[in-house]
Design brief:
With 229 residues, the protein is α/β, with parallel strands linked by helices. The chain has eight helices and eight strands; from the N terminus they run E-H-E-H-H-H-H-E-E-E-H-E-H-E-H-E. Strand 6, helix 7 and strand 7 form a beta-alpha-beta unit. The chain is globular and about 45 Å long.
C-alpha cells in the first residue's frame, strides 16, 4: 500500500482541502483509495461515543472517496477512530475529557486500510511538528509509517500562500531534513479569494531558497482536474 502523509507548516493551511482533492484525483484515475485522519479535535457533539461525534475534516475526506474504495459504506471510525471536542491540540483536547490519545491506535488505525485500498491518504493534525499525542509529534507518527517495510511512504507539506509563509515553510522543511525525513512535495495553497500581495513572489522565493523541493501552486478553490498530482 502506498501511503501519502499530508501535513502542513501550521494549522488552517488547507491540509484537508489538498488531501481531499488529491484523493479525488487518484480515484478519478482508477486507484482504490483510502482516507485516514488519525485523530481529530474540535469535533461536534457531546456523546462520549466517538462514532457519534462529527469531524468536519474527516467527513470532507470521506466524501473524496466517491467510489474509489472497495467499501460500499465506510465506517466513520475507520476514517477517524479518535475524536475529541475541544478545539485544541489533540493531546490537550483529550485531557479536557479526562482521557488521552491512544498512540498505538494512531498507527494501527492506518494499517486497517491495507486490505481495502492501494493508496492511503493520511492527514495529520496541525503542523508537522505539532503534538498529536502526549509523547508524539506528527513527524514521529510519520516516521513510524516509514519504518514499516510494507508501506511505500511519502510526505507532502501544505503551506498557505500568504505573508509569513517563507519563514514557516523554510523552517519546517529544514527541521524535517534535520530529523532525517525527506519531503516529497510542497503544495503552496491559496487560502483566500483576495490574497495579500505576497502571493506574487512567495513561490519565486521558495524556489530560490528550497530549489530541491518540488513545489506545486494551488489556486483558490482549484479542482482535482486542474492540479498536477
Amino acid at each position: 500500500m502506498k501511503l501519502t502523509f499530508v501535513s502542513g507548516t501550521g494549522t488552517d493551511v488547507g491540509k484537508t482541502y489538498v488531501a481531499a482533492t488529491f484523493g479525488k484525483s487518484l480515484a478519478g484515475r482508477g486507484h482504490r483509495i483510502g482516507v485516514y485522519k488519525p485523530v481529530a479535535s474540535g469535533c461536534i457533539g457531546q456523546s462520549n461515543n466517538f462514532v457519534d461525534r462529527v469531524s468536519i475534516d474527516a467527513d470532507l475526506l470521506t466524501r473524496a472517496l466517491d467510489g474509489g474504495c472497495t467499501e460500499s459504506s465506510i465506517d466513520p471510525l475507520l476514517v477517524c477512530p479518535q475524536r475529541f471536542l475541544s478545539p485544541t491540540a489533540p493531546d490537550a483536547a483529550a485531557r479536557t475529557e479526562g482521557s488521552q490519545v491512544d498512540p498505538r491506535l494512531l498507527y494501527e488505525g492506518a494499517l486497517r486500510w491495507q486490505p481495502r485500498c492501494d493508496h492511503l491518504i493520511v492527514e495529520g493534525a496541525g503542523g508537522l511538528f505539532s503534538p498529536i499525542a502526549d509523547e508524539l509529534l506528527n513527524i514521529d507518527l510519520y516516521r513510524q509509517f516509514l519504518a514499516n517495510g510494507s508501506l511505500d511512504c511519502q510526505l507532502v507539506l501544505v503551506a498557505p500562500n500568504r505573508l509569513g509563509v517563507l519563514h514557516d515553510t523554510i523552517a519546517t522543511y529544514r527541521a524535517a531534513i534535520a530529523c532525517g525525513v525527506s519531503v516529497d512535495r510542497l503544495f503552496l495553497n491559496t487560502t483566500d479569494e483576495n490574497p495579500d500581495p505576497s502571493v506574487a513572489t512567495n513561490a519565486i522565493q521558495l524556489r530560490k531558497w528550497l530549489p530541491e523541493l518540488h513545489l506545486i501552486e494551488v489556486d483558490w478553490q482549484a479542482t482535482a482536474e486542474s492540479l498536477d498530482f
